[in-house]
Amino acid sequence: MEAFWIILSGSLIAISCGLLGCYLVLRKMAMVGDAISHAVLPGIVLAYLLSGSRETLPMLIGAAVLGVLTTVLIELFYKKAALQVDASIGITFTWLFAIGIILISLFAGQVDLDQDCVLYGEIAYVPLDLWITGSGLNMGPRTVWISGVLLVVILLFIWRGYKGLFITTFNEEFAKAIGIGVAFWHYALMSAVSLTTVVSFESVGAILVVAFLIVPPSTAYLLTNNLKKMLVITSVIGFLCALGGYFLASIINGSIAGAMATVAGVLFFISWGYVMIQKKKAALEITTN
Amino acid sequence: MNETIQFLSFSDPNVRFVVLGTMILGATAAMVGSFSFLRKRALVGDAIAHAILPGICLSFMISGSKSPLGLIVGAFITGWLSLLLIDAISRTTKLSSDAAIGIILSVFFGVGILLLTSIQHSGNAAQAGLDKFLFGKAASLTQDDIITFSSIGIVLIVLVLLFYKEFKLVSFNPDYARVIGLPVKFLEFVLATITVLAVAVGIQAVGVVLMAALLITPASGARFWTNRLGYMILISTFFGAISGFLGSYISYIAPAMPTGPWVVMCLSLLTVGSIWFAPKRGMLHKYRVQRENRRKILIENVLKLFYHLGEKENKFKQARSFEELQANRDLKTKELIKGLDMLKKRNWLRKKGEKWFISTTGLTEAKRVIRLHRLWEMYLNQRLKLEPDHVHNDAEAIEHIITPELEKQLEKELDFPEKDPHQSTIPYNEI
Questions:
Q1: Per the CB < 8 Å rule, is B114 touching A255?
Q2: Which chain A residue has its CA at the smallest distance from B34's CA?
Q3: ipTM, 2 decimals?
Q4: How far apart are CA A92 and CA B145, in angstroms?
């Protein structure tokens, strides 16, 4: 049963991250996703301090605010101060992450967040944190419910906003010309990424959110050019990562989240190799013909 | 206060090691980072920092010891591997380089975490402290560490001094470097090597996540102070060293405070301060220039308004009510009030009761702007053969920019025309 809950919550998170990640990868904003996933830390700590508990809602608000602040800061450095974009990203997220760690040390007594957990989470504890209703009914692990709701929200977002996201991703100029709010979709996507990050934070940590955001979509992108297929393949890969990661971790007795990222990497390298072989074959056929 | 004196006296050997260590690490990373910054490879440093973790774990698994040199060798190998893979992915697939960086960064780090936790769970007592690489261990640097750091730091400095000219060329214009016969591939290899080395060493002070800041933040800040590479590297190195010093000072007087994040905090504040306040390139300076320009344009437009009204009735010094002024030019009430006030301060306008009229010096200034406008219209019409109804908007913008030298040239070129393309008189100064 424990294995089931861990794999289920892992898959839910991996799929939510992957779906949003598809848009990040296609918009060449993968590293902005990386930056947000680090920069929400101070938001989480502040929400924790202000609300005094691990309630989900204040954390979501804190993270969303920080997520948007991150993109605003990056754009401020990039557009107003004419600093190159990679440096703008690098400065912003390291600064905010450092502030987050300092806040944790400052309020060590009041904040029940430890530094390692911030980096790689602890998905193994998912089955222990149960949601028990007022009448004493055991509803199963809390994380599964939260990440399930998250996935529904993300699916709704992509379903309702499919056109807007599609056009602003592939042809920004055209979107502007026909009056679609490019900035609106940009910030909507960034907020969605921040929300996903904070929900995933506790179970998989900052770095592995990045793995789920970037690696499965990139793998899917290697295999197809069709956005809808890419979203589906990403979801399948997300599930495989959670499944494979769980078993890999139990074999070598290590972090489950780390193992999930490792499996994501293995799947990526396999598809990369496959694509390269296909290319070579095609090139050979052309030369022999 | 006592603590400050104690800290500054360096009487405690621990203080000496920590301060010296973080300063050396900060300075060398900042120096090497200047080149990463210029080659637009800021985030590659981040990827290397993450990719180093599995190297450290593997090195420990193979050797079973935590000697600084052994770990650095392991770190060096996976750090280099990550660079090669990022290049290969962005070269052979349709993925952009930032996706390639993200993939390598997160996968290598995931593998590292997997190995690290596996080592921790194995119950091997020697592993304690290996996880210091995640967040750095600046506060517990030892003499051995300092010796390793300083020798690597010296190697890096010597390499940079030795290849300074070549690195400069490769960073700014690799194509040109190739053409004049420099071994660009080799130089890029050396640059990448010193970056990996600097990261492998620096990570021990601030940890995986914040390492990117040590490389890139000081260089970004230094860039706002100068356009010369030599100065930029010096300023950047200075930022790195001073932040190392301040970071270790803060964690000394407040022992609960982690050193690494404070080093990064100091670096970030220095850099954000530079971005705002640096002369010439700083944002504040840019805003000031912009505001000055906006003011100039507003003033000149209001003066022109007086001139146009006066020209119609041939009564230039007629007093005008606020309503009359606003009815004749599309200016917001607030803007117009601001413009009138500024003009009054300069004595270009005078106020009589509720009405405004233009002074003699104001009229001269108004004539100058009108003259530039009409001369430019004339120029566009005569030399570029633009129709008279196409020249106004262009002139409206450039009238605020034309210098006295350019004005003289225009007058000479057009031979002091009397009328503009719309048959309005061009006003010259009476001599």
A1: yes
A2: A87
A3: 0.90
A4: 30
Per-residue pLDDT at B421: 86
A92 neighbors A40 (Cβ within 8 angstroms): no
The enclosing H or E element of A183 equals helix A182-223
Taking only the tens place, the pLDDT of each residue in A25-48 is: 999 888 888 898 888 888 888 888
Task: State the DSSP H helix or E strand holding residue B252, giving kind and residue range, or none if neither.
Answer: helix B229-253
Q: What is the pLDDT of residues A126-141, one digit of tens each?
A: 777 777 766 777 777 7
**Residues of chain B contacting A265 with CB distance shorter than 8 Å:** 103, 106-108, 110-111
Distance CA B163, CA B168 (A): 8
d(CA A234, CA A25): 12
Long-range Cβ contacts of A151-160 (<8 Å, 24+ apart): A151/A12, A151/A15, A151/A16, A153/A195, A154/A16, A154/A19, A154/A20, A154/A192, A154/A196, A155/A19, A157/A188, A157/A192, A158/A19, A158/A231
Nearest residue in A to B209, CA atom: A94
pLDDT tier for residue B128 given thresholds of 50, 70 and 90 = low
Of the partner residues B134, B224, B256, the one whose CB lies closest to the CB of residue A105? B256
Q: How far is CA A268 from the centre of its chain?
A: 17
Asked if B213's CB is within 8 angstroms of A95's CB, the reply is yes
